[in-house]
Amino acid sequence: MSTTSQFTERDVSEFFDQTTQTYLSFWDSEGVLHTGYFAGPDDTDYPAAADRTSDLLATEAGIDASATVLDVGCGCGNFLLRLAERTGCRGEGVDLSIERVRFALGKLTERGDGLPVAFRHGSATALPYDDGGFSHVVSQDALFLVPDKARSHAEMYRVLAPGGTLAVTDFLQPVAEIGEAARRHVYDRVRWSSGYSLDGYREALTAAGFEVTVARSLDDHIRQTYRVLGETARQRAAATDDEAARQWILGFAASCDEIQAAIDRGEFGWGMFVARKPA
Ligand SMILES: C[S@@+](CC[C@H](N)C(=O)[O-])C[C@H]1O[C@@H](n2cnc3c(N)ncnc32)[C@H](O)[C@@H]1O
Methyltransferase domain location, by residue (predicted)? Predict the structure, then answer.
């Protein structure tokens, strides 16, 4: 058994900058990069499952037309654009990867329909926003990547208005000691330093001042996500001419098998959390 490796924010941003185009080629061409919430064990429709996660989180957060939303680790911007379209809310997205923010800004320009949404390059540990400016802070599968998690919690608390809501999905590290295969294929693969168990997550948010109302494990859905995406990756690799990209995608497909095994061994998980900043 071993502990996880240590990565810096720079390691993380380089990884997401360098892999943006590759992920677009086989994971989701619109740039969605989060765990799906599947309709049942035989469901293999990843795009629908990914949208379902977004809609579930929006419902849990209680986002409506009056909301001002910050999406931390917004990636290519899809969650915020969907939220604004479907609820009429306003919002900002911030991400550490310049390439992903560029993609999000491109999508916004292409649409040209004046949605009240903006995207910015920045870190969860130094949010470029005033105190108390948002009614909701949301995040999908991004906060696990932050090496200094206490700092990101303090920042999200700061930018929320009193009575505001934090709603996140995130990767979980259920146990302190993990095996070599999990370290290589789950943690090091995406430059993930370390994470919380479900209880540890709740305790960390509470320590930051939040009142946690939902802390739910959703391991079955992340297992299914990597089962479905592993199969998709193998099909895409067979149709990819660029040898370097093909090898990377095949490596990802092999990791998908190891990721499912790590979930079965209790070394990796996924959870949803909703918390309130006291009024
Ligand atoms: C797995 S992707 C999820 C992207 C997006 N939330 C989605 O659902 O498609 C993780 C994202 O977190 C971003 N990220 C990692 N560390 C961050 C940090 N310290 N501050 C802001 N974003 C960060 C990465 O650049 C990447 O875009």
Answer: 69-164
pLDDT tens track, the chain, 279 positions: 667 889 999 999 999 999 998 888 878 899 999 999 999 999 999 999 999 999 999 999 999 999 999 999 999 999 999 999 999 999 999 999 999 999 999 999 998 788 999 999 999 999 999 999 999 999 999 999 999 999 999 999 999 999 999 999 999 999 999 999 999 999 999 999 999 999 999 999 999 999 999 999 999 999 999 999 999 999 988 888 889 888 988 999 999 999 999 999 999 999 999 999 999
CA 141 to ligand 1 center in whole angstroms: 7
- Outline where DSSP puts E strands in the chain: 68-72, 90-95, 117-121, 134-140, 160-172, 211-217, 269-276
Q: Which CATH superfamily is domain 9-276 in?
A: Vaccinia Virus protein VP39 (3.40.50.150)
Please indicate whether residue 140, judged by its CB atom, sits closer than 6 Å to ligand 1.
Answer: yes
Q: In terms of Cα–Cα distance, which of 41, 34, 76, 40 is closest to 57?
A: 34
Distance 72 CA to ligand 1 centre (A): 7
What is the Å distance from ligand 1's center to 73 Cα? 3
**Do the Cβ atoms of 153 and 273 come closer than 8 Å?**
no
**Residue 129 near residue 92, CB atoms below 8 Å:** yes
Pocket test for ligand 1, best of 19, 21, 97, 159 (most atoms within 8 A of CB): 97
* Pocket lining: 271 vs ligand 1, CB cutoff 6 Å: no
User: What is the value of pTM for the model shown?
Assistant: 0.96
